[in-house]
Fold this protein.
Amino acid sequence: MSHALQDPRPTGARRSSGSLTRGGLPRWAPAGIAVVSIALGTGIGAAASLGSKVQWGLIAALLFVVITYTLSSVVENRRQAKDRVATSVVWVCFVLAVIPLLSLIWVTISRGLKVLDGYFLTHSMSGITAFDEGGGVYHALLGTIEQVALATLIAAPIGLLTAVYLVEYGKGSLARAVTFFVDVMTGIPSIVAGLFILSTWNLMLGFGPSGFAGSMALAILMMPVVVRSTEEMLKLVPNELREASLALGVPKWRTILKVVLPTAIGGISTGVMLAVARIAGETAPIMLLVFGAQLINNNPFEGAQSSLPLYIWEQYKVGSEASYDRAWAAALVLIAFVMILNLVARGIARWKAPKTGR
């Protein structure tokens, strides 16, 4: 009996499993191509005297895509080559997005840890000039916590109820008008929200600078984010759950309270935290309405306060080495503050989410 009858596979399929010409690239091919591309990109960048490492990286990314397509076209086929190119482009975009983030985190941590200690977190700038070493961020951290908490207490209930209305009750022209204005508010610059509160609360009603005034401006920026995120989460709740509850004779308001909201609580908490993360770094409304202070002010309803973003701007504006260190340390505190809020939101979402196990 001939060899062809003993082994009916095509000749190409009977080649050695380690061969590149058997119709498919090995699993290590993308990693190998990446290493070669990085080496070539570095060599080309150095030979061309390109001073920016970013240019070297872009050359390496372009070479990675080109080499992947060429090699896959030769070894495999053009259809598989196009698929690999699409995958390569996705990976390149992912790396290009992650590198600046990792670089930012690394610089903030490395420079912020110089002065970040217990003293820095428990003292204010009282008696410390901007050019002197020492001082702390306690007054700014306290102001940020109070202002963000008040803004959340104002914006979260309003945004949640607005989203419930749009999803569960909203019909006709009123719902369309609310949706339109929510979209408009999403793009409002922070300085405009600050000017609105300044003209009404401070100038028309005669109130002075305070943390509460800044909280109202931050709440304006926070509300549309809460509405949009909550609305999308409520739309993801299956209608079968609503229909089952209503079929048992449960009123609609109770169905929303006991069925719809608990089902979407995870996404709602995440949306609120995204809104909090946005307002926690706002500086313009605080400059207009809170003014900033170097002393500790525990009362957000009276007197000037500080906040972490405003403290960072004030310290960086000075331009001394000590003020730069304080600015980077405050930036690290702000990142940690937002991260802790997100972890708390994840914990609440897991705790309140409906149990799926039996």
